[in-house]
Amino acid sequence: MQRGTQHIVDSNRGYTKLLCYQKTVVIYDLTFHFCSRFIDKRDRTFDQMIQAARSGKQNIVEGYVDRATSFEMALKLYNVARGSLAELCEDYLDYLRVHNMCRWSDGSKEKEAMRRLGMEHADSEFFIKLAESRSDETIANMVLVLLYQADHLLYNFIQSEEQEFLKNGGIKERMYQARVKQRGY
Description:
With 185 residues, this protein is an all-alpha fold. It has one domain: 23S rRNA-intervening sequence (de novo design (two linked rop proteins)), CATH 1.20.1440.60. Helix content is 75%, strand content 0%. It has 7 helices and no strands. The chain has helices spanning 19-38, 44-66, 71-98, 109-120, 124-132, 136-168, 171-183. Helix 1 (19-38) packs parallel to helix 5, helix 1 runs antiparallel to helix 6 (136-168) and helix 3 packs antiparallel against helix 6 (136-168). The longest helix is centred in the last third of the chain and has 33 residues, at 136-168.
């Protein structure tokens, strides 16, 4: 292709700038921290929670890269990410329930404070330092707030991707347009 010409397959490295991706990195790191401190490594839940957190993050990456050639695959992978995060959410809720711990209620000062922190910060280091001196009950509730935020961000991102597809089409349209332009029609 000539200089200045739009490529058929776009560059795919921008996922690290997505807030939904950044949030899932924090969730993965906090989940690893949580499991390492509070769940026996021989317990199947240890691996399940870490893998669900990883899957939530990795499917955003894979979807973002795959969108260059298939919006359909990208949307499927983003929804797989949402499913993995929902599974992780259930694991944290189960942990609180079976350990007879409290879940922060809507409007509670703890939940509202965490919601604000979740909106202000997107780096793992901040949350890991916060979690180091907190109980398992507090960390589980912290991650639940972040999971709800990540789901909301991911849902909105999926909606914007759908609009992008409707506006600009997919690879078949780009291939056709490039071919037409190359032939001078």
